[in-house]
Amino acid sequence: MNENTAKAPEDCENMGEVRVGVDATDRELVALLERRFGYMRAAARIKPTRGAVRDEERKASVINAAVADAEARGIPGDVVADIWDRLVEGSIAYEFVEWDRIRD
Known about the structure:
Layout: H1 15-46, H2 56-72, H3 77-103
Helix pairs in contact: 1-3, 2-3
């Protein structure tokens, strides 16, 4: 096995293998966040008013969907709710910055 090739979690036999898997997963998560923030840039470009950036109903819907998906996968919903709350708030803040930037 290449030291940078991640095994499936159930196939790990030592902490080195676990760490390789965690590190690989973290890189994948950052790549997914890059794509998600790209959608925030698109939203900033598309939304007609700055006031449209924050949508509490949409925020709740996104968090609730993530929690339901997490719980269906056996992942703690409360942890995912906390992570997604921070993710969505960070996304909103980023979208505000982008909205302002493209209109200056």
